Amino acid sequence: MIVYLLCFVLLLVGLFGVLTKRDLIKIILSIGILGYAVNLLLILFAYRKDSVYPILAKGKEVAQMVDPLPQALVLTSIVIELGTTAMLVALAIKLFEKYQTFDISQIRRLKG
Amino acid sequence: MQQNDGMTLIVKTVTRISVWMILLYGIYIIFHGHLSPGGGFAGGVIIALAFLNVLLAYGRKFTSDWLNISFLHDLESASATLFLVIGILGISLGGAFLANFITKGELFALLSAGTILPLNIIIGIKVGMSLFLVVWVLAGTKIVKGE
Q1: What φ, ψ does residue B115 adopt, rounded to 5°?
Q2: Which of B114, B115, B123, B111 lies closest to B87, judged by CA?
Q3: What are the Na+/H+ antiporter MnhB subunit-related protein domain coordinates in residue numbering (chain B) (predicted)?
Q4: Which of A99, A109, B41, B146 has the fewest CB atoms nearer than 10 Å to its CB?
């Protein structure tokens, strides 16, 4: 149970960063932490005590395995997170080109 | 070699040795994707990191001389088409999209598991090239220094 609570704390850390930080790069990093917390939660749901990774290797006996479905799901989620992060960084660079700052309290007027 | 381009001599020397090892490790991860943890995506990311190492250590001009960027772009687009070609070959030869149509081989052998190995290689090329090109484009943006 404690691992789920710690996972939720990680999610709260990401949410704290998104809500309180003013720097655009820090906000992007916080969105990354939010995503990691969700991925970790999905992997924790699939975990069973005393079970092995779901890959059949040479000379390995067939034993109780963890659920491989969330692991495949999380791999896709990581790929999508990579794409969204790249797009956020591109948008941040465009904003910096226009306003010369990453501080979101300075980015408020339509300019140019 | 210009001194003001890229990082210091120490970083350049270490990169010159380590980049081939990183590339080899990425190729190993791709080729063993059907036997052990890893596969196309993980190996492709490692290959992209090897190229990014060169970009960080040597600077943009050296990298564009060393690598043919437009060829990497073509390779990235061609790998998606190749994936589709293998999928459609599965329709014509195996009966369903991405169905296996070559021999499955022996269990736990390197050349086994049918079309998974070529598909892993294609995915590795696609992921590696596109990840490198994303950072290449982002790093090429001219940013005027802020006040």
Answers
A1: -85, 5
A2: B115
A3: 10-131
A4: A109
Question: Is the Cβ pair B35, A57 closer than 8 Å?
Answer: yes
Mutate to test the interface with B, among A74, A84, A97 (most CBs of B within 10 A): A97
Condensed to tens digits (0 to 9), the pLDDT of residues A46-76 reads: 888 888 888 777 777 777 888 889 988 998 8
B103-110 long-range contacts, CB within 8 A, separation 24+: B108/A57, B108/A58, B108/B35, B110/B31, B110/B32, B110/B35
Rounded distance between C-alpha atoms, residue A57 and residue B92, angstroms: 32
Among chain B residues, the shortest Cα distance to A99 is held by B146
List helix spans (H) across B59-115. Answer: 60-66, 69-94
| Gap between the Cα atoms of A16 and A29, Å rounded | 12
